[in-house]
UniProtKB/TrEMBL annotation:
<feature type="transmembrane region" description="Helical">
    <location>
        <begin position="189"/>
        <end position="207"/>
    </location>
</feature>
<feature type="transmembrane region" description="Helical">
    <location>
        <begin position="76"/>
        <end position="94"/>
    </location>
</feature>
<keyword id="KW-0812">Transmembrane</keyword>
<keyword id="KW-0472">Membrane</keyword>
<dbReference type="Pfam" id="PF01810">
    <property type="entry name" value="LysE"/>
</dbReference>
<protein>
    <recommendedName>
        <fullName>Lysine transporter LysE</fullName>
    </recommendedName>
</protein>
<dbReference type="InterPro" id="IPR001123">
    <property type="entry name" value="LeuE-type"/>
</dbReference>
<keyword id="KW-1133">Transmembrane helix</keyword>
<feature type="transmembrane region" description="Helical">
    <location>
        <begin position="114"/>
        <end position="137"/>
    </location>
</feature>
<feature type="transmembrane region" description="Helical">
    <location>
        <begin position="149"/>
        <end position="169"/>
    </location>
</feature>
<keyword id="KW-1003">Cell membrane</keyword>
Length: 209
């Protein structure tokens, strides 16, 4: 049983890590926090953004029967995501950039990164359908056969772990390459990131229509 639980955890971790490599509010939030604050703040943001994986993956594990109950909420969350991305992009566009040397003088509000990251993660409408499809396919191929609660919990924890490992990597790489990013973007990284995020929001809106 323990071996099955560990295998389930490892499988979900790999799938979640790979599936999280996409343009989304949590990834952009971790990147921005690492640039604008510090690595520890970015890690807290990324950890908060990974927690909703527990909720959505857990719901997906509970069964496809949940899908009908959450269809209307999925539509609402899709438009909420568009709003979050658009507001976040506009905020970045008008936010003044700071030089790496001036990072220590930036006044930051410590401690709220976890909550903000969790909020961004909750507003990701792709998580539940993603895990629902993944789990259905894994069961059809016989990669998930056990219905024991320990094995299922291992899978759900692995989903959050994989997402967090990616955010940890983003925070680490961004913190190490901060000066390079500033130089490459000529200290206009806020406008560049803001424009990209607004573009994604518009694209998401067109897809939802």
């Amino acid at each position: 049983m323990l071996l099955e639980a560990l295998s389930s955890l490892a499988l979900a971790t790999v799938i979640s890590f790979a599936g999280s490599v996409q343009l989304g509010p949590v990834n952009f939030g971790t990147l921005h926090t690492a640039l604008h604050k510090d690595k520890k703040s970015a890690i807290r943001f990324g950890f908060g953004g990974s927690l909703p994986e527990l909720l959505y993956c857990g719901l997906a594990v509970a069964g496809a029967g949940w899908l009908g109950r959450f269809e209307q909420w999925q539509e609402i969350l899709q438009y909420c995501t568009v709003v979050v991305l658009f507001v976040f992009g506009v905020y970045l566009w008008f936010q003044k950039s700071h030089s790496p040397e001036g990072q220590s003088s930036i006044q930051t509000s410590k401690g709220n990164e976890l909550l903000v990251g969790a909020t961004f993660g909750l507003l990701n409408p792709q998580l539940f359908p993603f895990w629902l499809v993944v789990i259905t396919n894994l069961k059809s191929y016989g990669l998930i056969t056990s219905t024991h609660v320990v094995v299922q919990v291992g899978f759900v924890v692995g989903a959050a772990l994989g997402a967090f490992l990616l955010q940890l990597l983003v925070a680490e790489v961004t913190s190490r390459k901060r000066e390079f990013i500033y130089m490459r973007l000529t200290r206009n990284y806020n406008k560049v990131l803001g424009a990209i995020i607004v573009g994604i929001a518009i694209l998401q809106l067109l897809i939802n229509l």
